[in-house]
C-alpha cells in the first residue's frame, strides 16, 4: 500500500478491534448513543472500501489461434444463427426456464442473426439496438465420426461482448466475462460424433461499476411503464453480440497447449535469436513428461529452413539465425514486417509425432529509456491514430474486407502505428499488423475507469493478463496500454494503477507500459508508474472551441510539463476535432473541413517544436474514421473526428496528414515519397525540371 489516502488492511483490522472493544465497554455502561454507533459503522465501512489488495489473478491457459496442421483440423461455425432477445425486465428467464435444453425456436420466436456481428444494427427495431440485458443464440452442427478417434475437440470464441454462457447439447461448456478477448473449452465429452449437435449462447451486455469497462444501469419511467437504461461515460457505442469467429478444432490427446516466443538481435542486427518455450498437455504430458521433446525449425519467406533444433524435456530452447532479416516497422525499411515461420513438432515416446503447430515470428528488439524508444537499436517516432473497430450495420463484428481496407488506408496515409483504442482488436488484425509492419500500442478494455475498488482491480488485472497471453508473440505489439482516460485524480488511483502497471511488467518485461491520460499533470496520480506517458487533449475543440490561436503553445507546454515532472518519453495520444463531411466554411469554423485542417496544422507546429527534444516520441490523431456513439445532442450520427468517414473515404485533412506523415518518414526514416503524393499544379518555367524534396512539404 502507498499514498496518504490508503488505509492498510492491518490498520483497518486494528481499528475494528478497538472499535468493538470500545463499543463493548460503552454498551456495558449504556453510554453510547445510536447516532455515534451509526457514525462508527459508517467509518468502518468507508475505511474497508478504501482497501485495495494486490491479489493473484488466475492465469489464462492455452488459447492458441486455431490453425490446421498435420495433426489438427479446424471448422468454422460462422454464419446465420437463431436469435432471441430476452425481456429486459426479466433477463434471467431463459436460465430459469432452461432454454438451453432445446432449440430456441421451440420456446420463443427466433430471427436469423449473422455471426460474427454486433446484433444492434442488424434489424430495424430500436428496442434491439438499445437493448440492455441478455440475448440468446443457437445453431446446429455436425461432428464427424472421425473426430471420435484418439483426439480432443475444442470450441473457441474470438470474442463475445460482454459476458457469455455457452451450452453444448444442453450442458454448460464455458462461461467467460470480458468482451474483445477469446475463450475456449474442451467439448470432447459433450458432443455426439457422427450426429447433429446444438450450441446455445447466452450473451449479456450489461455494464456496471465492476465490469471492464464500467457503466451504470437504471430504471427510468416511460410512457407505458419502466425502461431499463444503460449509461456509460465512454464515447463509443456499446455494441454487443458474438463479435468474432467461432471455431471447432481438434488436437491430439497430447498436444501443444501454448508457446511463448521472444527474440533478440546481435552483431549489428546480422544475427538473430528466437527463444521458444512450449507447454504441452494431455495424456502423455501428464503420464510421461520426461519422454516429450519438441523439434523446432524456422523457415524464411521462401520456405527455406534457416535454423533448427531439438529441445530437451523442458521443451524450450533458442534458434540462432545467421544473416537475419529483422522485423521493421512500415517505412523504416524497404521490406517492413518480415516474418519467419516457426514450426513446432511435439514428439513422444519412441519418437512418435504427437502434434504440430506453426506460428509466424518477427525477429526484433525493443528498448527504451527516459528520452527515447528504439526498435532494433534505431529511435522510433510514432505517427498514427487512435481507432475503433466500428462499421455500419456490422458494428464491432469482424469484417475482413473492412480490415483490409483500413490497413491499405494506413499505408496510403503513411502511418506507422495505431493504438487499439479502447479494447483489444481482433486476432486477425494483429496478424495483419505483423505482416504489414504496423506498430501497435495494445490497449485493454479499461476506459474512463473510476471508483477504484477491489473487484474492479481484479478484473482489470485479468483483462491485462488475458490480453498479454493472447498477443505476447506478435512483433507488431510494441507497448501495453493499461487504460484510456482513467480518473487518475481520484482517491485510490495511485495504488490502483501501481498494481496494474506492475502486474503488466511482471507478465511481460520486454515491452513498456503506458496509459492515455486526460487529467492534468498536476492532478494525476498514475503517470509515475508508467514507462511512457501518453496524454489526450483537445485544444481548439473541448478546450477553447473555435480558437485556433490557443493550440500550439498549450500543446508544447503540456507535453513539456509531463516530461519535466516524470522524466519519461511523451506521446500525444489524442487530438482532433469533429468534422462533418462536405461542410465547407471560410474563414474556418467549427465542424467544417477547413477548421479540422487548420486545427491539425496548429498541432503540427507544436509537434515540430517538441520533436527537437528526443523525449517527444509520437503523435496520434483521434480518430482514424468516424464511429458510432450513444445518442446525445452533441453527436450527429456519432463521433465525427475521423480523418476518414465511417465508410472509409478521406476528408480534406487526410491529404494534409498524408503529406506530413510521409515528410516525417522521409526525414526520420529516409523513406521514399509515393509517386501520387504531389498533384500537378503548373509549369513554372525555369524550375520545371526541379525535383521534389522535403521543402515541397
TrEMBL record:
Q: Residue limits of the Glycoside hydrolase family 2 catalytic domain? A: 370-662
Q: Which UniProt keywords apply?
A: Glycosidase, Hydrolase, Lysosome, Membrane, Signal, Transmembrane, Transmembrane helix
Task: Kindly give the Gene3D superfamilies that the UniProt entry links to this protein.
Answer: Galactose-binding domain-like, Glycosidases, Immunoglobulins
Known regulation of activity:
Inhibited by L-aspartic acid.
**Which reactions is this enzyme annotated as catalysing?**
a beta-D-glucuronoside + H2O = D-glucuronate + an alcohol
What range(s) does the Glycoside hydrolase family 2 immunoglobulin-like beta-sandwich domain occupy?
A: 254-364
Question: Where do transmembrane segments lie in this chain?
Answer: 27-53
Domain Glycosyl hydrolases family 2 sugar binding residues, every copy:
74-252
Look up the domain of life of the source: Eukaryota
Looking up Pfam families in the UniProt record yields: Glyco_hydro_2, Glyco_hydro_2_C, Glyco_hydro_2_N
Q: Which Enzyme Commission number(s) are listed?
A: 3.2.1.31
EC top class, in one word?
hydrolase
Q: Which InterPro entries match?
A: Beta-gal/glucu_dom_sf (IPR036156), Galactose-bd-like_sf (IPR008979), GH (IPR017853), Glyco_hydro_2 (IPR006101), Glyco_hydro_2_AS (IPR023232), Glyco_hydro_2_cat (IPR006103), Glyco_hydro_2_CS (IPR023230), Glyco_hydro_2_N (IPR006104)
Function of the protein: Plays an important role in the degradation of dermatan and keratan sulfates.
Could you say which protein family the record assigns here?
Answer: Belongs to the glycosyl hydrolase 2 family.
Q: Share what the entry says about its subunit structure, partners included.
A: Homotetramer.
Record's protein name: Beta-glucuronidase
Record lineage: Eukaryota, Metazoa, Ecdysozoa, Arthropoda, Hexapoda
Amino acid at each position: 500500500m502507498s499514498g496518504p489516502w490508503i488505509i492498510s488492511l492491518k490498520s483497518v483490522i486494528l481499528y475494528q478491534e478497538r472499535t468493538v472493544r470500545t463499543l463493548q465497554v460503552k454498551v456495558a455502561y449504556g453510554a453510547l448513543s445510536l447516532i455515534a454507533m451509526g457514525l462508527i459503522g459508517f467509518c468502518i465501512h468507508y475505511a474497508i472500501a478504501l482497501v485495495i489488495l494486490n491479489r493473484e489473478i488466475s492465469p489464462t491457459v492455452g488459447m492458441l489461434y486455431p490453425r490446421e496442421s498435420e495433426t489438427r483440423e479446424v471448422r468454422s461455425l460462422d454464419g446465420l444463427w437463431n436469435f432471441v432477445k430476452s425481456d429486459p425486465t426479466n433477463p434471467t428467464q431463459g436460465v430459469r426456464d432452461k432454454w438451453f435444453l432445446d432449440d430456441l425456436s421451440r420456446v420463443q420466436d427466433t430471427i436469423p442473426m449473422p455471426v460474427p456481428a454486433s446484433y444492434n444494427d442488424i434489424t430495424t427495431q430500436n428496442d434491439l439496438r438499445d437493448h440492455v440485458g441478455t440475448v440468446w443464440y443457437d445453431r446446429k452442427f455436425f461432428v464427424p465420426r472421425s473426430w471420435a478417434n484418439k483426439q480432443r475437440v475444442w470450441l473457441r470464441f474470438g470474442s463475445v461482448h460482454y459476458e457469455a454462457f455457452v451450452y453444448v447439447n444442453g450442458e454448460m461448456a464455458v462461461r467467460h466475462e470480458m468482451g474483445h478477448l477469446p475463450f475456449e473449452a474442451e467439448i470432447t465429452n459433450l458432443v455426439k460424433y457422427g450426429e447433429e449437435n446444438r450450441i446455445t449462447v447466452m450473451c449479456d451486455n450489461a455494464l456496471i461499476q465492476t465490469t471492464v469497462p464500467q457503466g451504470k444501469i437504471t430504471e427510468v419511467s416511460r410512457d407505458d411503464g419502466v425502461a431499463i437504461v444503460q449509461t456509460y461515460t465512454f464515447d463509443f457505442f456499446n455494441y454487443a453480440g458474438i463479435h468474432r469467429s467461432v471455431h471447432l478444432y481438434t488436437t491430439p490427446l497430447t498436444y501443444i497447449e501454448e508457446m511463448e516466443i521472444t527474440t533478440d538481435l546481435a552483431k549489428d542486427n546480422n544475427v538473430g535469436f528466437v527463444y521458444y518455450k512450449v507447454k504441452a498437455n494431455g495424456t502423455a504430458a501428464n503420464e510421461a513428461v520426461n519422454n516429450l521433446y519438441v523439434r523446432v525449425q524456422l523457415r524464411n519467406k521462401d520456405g527455406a529452413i534457416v535454423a533448427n533444433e531439438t529441445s530437451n524435456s523442458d521443451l524450450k530452447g533458442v534458434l540462432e539465425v545467421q544473416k537475419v532479416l529483422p522485423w521493421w516497422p512500415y517505412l523504416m525499411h524497404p521490406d517492413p514486417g518480415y516474418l519467419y515461420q516457426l514450426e513446432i513438432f511435439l514428439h513422444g515416446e519412441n519418437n512418435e509425432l504427437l502434434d504440430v503447430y506453426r506460428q509466424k515470428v518477427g525477429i526484433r528488439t525493443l528498448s527504451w529509456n527516459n528520452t527515447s524508444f528504439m526498435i532494433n537499436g534505431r529511435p522510433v517516432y510514432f505517427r498514427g491514430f487512435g481507432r475503433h473497430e466500428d462499421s455500419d450495420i456490422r458494428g464491432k463484428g469482424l469484417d475482413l474486407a473492412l480490415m483490409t481496407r483500413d490497413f491499405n488506408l494506413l499505408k496510403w496515409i503513411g502511418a506507422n502505428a495505431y493504438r487499439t483504442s479502447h479494447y483489444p482488436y481482433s486476432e486477425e488484425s494483429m496478424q495483419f499488423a505483423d505482416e504489414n509492419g504496423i506498430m501497435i500500442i495494445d490497449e485493454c478494455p479499461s476506459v474512463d475507469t473510476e471508483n477504484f475498488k477491489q473487484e474492479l482491480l481484479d478484473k482489470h488485472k485479468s483483462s491485462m493478463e488475458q490480453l498479454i497471453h493472447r498477443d505476447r508473440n506478435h512483433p507488431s505489439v510494441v507497448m501495453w496500454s493499461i487504460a484510456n482516460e482513467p480518473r487518475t485524480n481520484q482517491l485510490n488511483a495511485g495504488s490502483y494503477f501501481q498494481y496494474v502497471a506492475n502486474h503488466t511488467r511482471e507478465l511481460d518485461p520486454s515491452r513498456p507500459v503506458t496509459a492515455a491520460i486526460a487529467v492534468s499533470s498536476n492532478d494525476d496520480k498514475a503517470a509515475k508508474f508508467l514507462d511512457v506517458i501518453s496524454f489526450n487533449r483537445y485544444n481548439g475543440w473541448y478546450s477553447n472551441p473555435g480558437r485556433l490561436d490557443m493550440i500550439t503553445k498549450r500543446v508544447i507546454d503540456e507535453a513539456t510539463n509531463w516530461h519535466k515532472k516524470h522524466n519519461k518519453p511523451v506521446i500525444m495520444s489524442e487530438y482532433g476535432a469533429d468534422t462533418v463531411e462536405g461542410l465547407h466554411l471560410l474563414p474556418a469554423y467549427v465542424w467544417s473541413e477547413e477548421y479540422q485542417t487548420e486545427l491539425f496544422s496548429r498541432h503540427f507546429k507544436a509537434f515540430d517544436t517538441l520533436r527537437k527534444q528526443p523525449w517527444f516520441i509520437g503523435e496520434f490523431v483521434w480518430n482514424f474514421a468516424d464511429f458510432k456513439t450513444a445518442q446525445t445532442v452533441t453527436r450527429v450520427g456519432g463521433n465525427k473526428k475521423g480523418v476518414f468517414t465511417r465508410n472509409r473515404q478521406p476528408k480534406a485533412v487526410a491529404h494534409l496528414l498524408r503529406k506530413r506523415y510521409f515528410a516525417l518518414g522521409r526525414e526520420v526514416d529516409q523513406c521514399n515519397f509515393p509517386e501520387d503524393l504531389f498533384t500537378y499544379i503548373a509549369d513554372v518555367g525555369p524550375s520545371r525540371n526541379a525535383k521534389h524534396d522535403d521543402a515541397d512539404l
